[in-house]
Every structure is written in structure tokens, then in C-alpha cells.
Amino acid sequence: MYLSIKETADLLSMTESHIESLILQKRIRAIHDGQQYLINKEQFNTHFEQLEKVKKLIEEINNEPIPEDIDIKDED
Fold first, then answer.
1. Residue 7 domain-assigned?
2. Which NCBIfam families match (predicted)?
3. What is the C-alpha separation between 12 and 55, in angstroms, rounded?
4. Contact predicate 38/23, CB 8 Å
5. How many structural domains is the chain composed of?
6. What is the pLDDT of residues 19-32, one digit of tens each?
7. CB 30 within 8 A of CB 37
């Protein structure tokens, strides 16, 4: 499935000008049909998979209990 620059910007939560810049830098693969750039949506699957892995890792870290420090002394 091919997306326009606007649709890609919405998908990636970026501005359209930033997407255009990434296309011109060849960091996003796109084809030009004579009027507009068309971007294959499948090239972002790996990005979204890695994003999900990072979110799960952060959630695991946040849910891990903080170990008690034995060196803390109660001064009361």
C-alpha cells in the first residue's frame, strides 16, 4: 500500500516538510509518479516492531520493584 507525504507524516507523527526532507536525503524510499511522491507503507514495519519492543522494555523496567538498600539507617 502506498501513502502520500501527508499520510506518511500522520502515520509517523512528523511534519510533511520533514518527510520530504527524509525522502530527498534517501532515508525514506519513495517513488515519484510525476506529480507526487508515493511511499510504500511496508518499509516502516520494522520501525514499528522495534518501537513496540522498546515500549515493552520500558514498561518492564518501570514495573520492576526498587530493591531495598541495606545501608540506609533510620535516624529517628
1. yes
2. excise
3. 16
4. no
5. 1
6. 999 999 999 999 99
7. yes
Q: Which of 25, 22, 24 is nearest to 47 (CA)?
A: 22
17-71 confidence digits (pLDDT tens): 999 999 999 999 999 999 999 999 999 888 889 999 999 999 999 998 887 777 7
All three cell numbers of 8: 506518511
Output b/e per residue, 44-69; b: 16+ Cβ within 10 A: beeeeeeeeeeeeeeeeeeeeeeeee
What amino acid is encoded at 2 in this protein? Y
The number of angstroms, rounded, from the C-alpha of 47 to the middle of its chain's C-alpha atoms is 6
Look at residue 45 and tell me if it is in a domain. Answer: yes
